[in-house]
Amino acid sequence: MIYVSTFKLSNKTVSNPNIYPYNVFVSKNEKCLVFDKITIFYGNNACGKSSLLNIIANKLKLIGKEEVIIKQGKPYFQEFVDDCTYGLGENEKEQVQQNIPENSRYIKSEDIMYEIKKIQREAILREGYIYEHAKKGYNKEQLEMLKHSPKMEEQIERMKFGQEKYSNGETSLQIFDDWLQTDSLYLLDEPEVSLSPQNQVLLAQKINFGARFLNNQYIIATHSPFMLGTLDTKIYNLNLKDFDICKWNELENVKCFYDFFQNRRDEF
């Protein structure tokens, strides 16, 4: 399933070349992205892949979006987002989608690490659980009821159990299993953080399964060769002048891994 088919960045310019986020994509001639069931933004640090995900998340008003707040001056970030446009995809009946599914969300690597810290520190388990539901739109009365509910106690106990039984990587996989449901759009920013190569491949396989059988769509920022080589995906290389589409084995980061092991081949 494809929920969002295209996304076009703002073409407007500002007088100051250092204004964020205009400065991130000012050198790009091509500003339009076309999405598949799984689409990857690849690139080195500071190439703009996380910024691009957050801009999309803000435009689509997804759970987990990060707003850039300016205390003084013009709200450049929001103006940039407002000027961006997107197109919705089609359902199985070839009818244009009416909206983005409500459960869709933007999941950042720091979100996963925050969840792991919640599990590792019992003192903030309850605070984190309430915070997560506040982000979902629960009002004060609903949050107060949740604090004393059997559902919350059950979830807290499950997270305590996870702390005792699982490593950070295993806990990350469990969090993804909890968060990645069906019939939704997911933006994932470097989901491989804290995962071993084996678990990166396992997560990529889960994503492939979700795209193929669970009606999910994924837009992912990563430079992990294990994710890049496993996912059935379209890859945009943000290191290049435009949003060029590349094969995973053409990417600089992958070639770096290849050369590293080739140069040490006799040691294996």
Notable characteristics:
three-stranded antiparallel sheet; alpha/beta; globular; Rossmann fold; 268 residues
Gist?
With 268 residues, the protein is of the alpha/beta class.
Task: Explain what you see.
- It contains 11 helices and 9 strands.
- The protein is of the alpha/beta class.
- It has a single domain (4-109, 181-267), classed as Rossmann fold, CATH 3.40.50.300.
- A 6-stranded mixed beta sheet has the order 5-6-7-3-8-9, with helices on both faces. Strands 2-1-4 form a 3-stranded antiparallel beta sheet.
- The chain starts with a strand and ends in a 6-residue tail after the last helix.
- The mean pLDDT is 86.
- Residues 37-191 form the ABC transporter domain.
Topology record:
Elements: E1 4-8, H1 22-25, E2 32-34, E3 38-42, H2 49-60, H3 76-83, E4 85-88, E5 105-108, H4 109-120, H5 125-135, H6 140-147, H7 150-165, H8 168-179, E6 185-189, H9 197-213, E7 217-221, H10 225-230, E8 234-237, E9 244-246, H11 252-262
Parallel strand pairs: 3-7, 3-8, 5-6, 6-7
Antiparallel strand pairs: 1-2, 1-4, 8-9
Helix pairs in contact: 2-3, 4-7, 4-8, 5-6
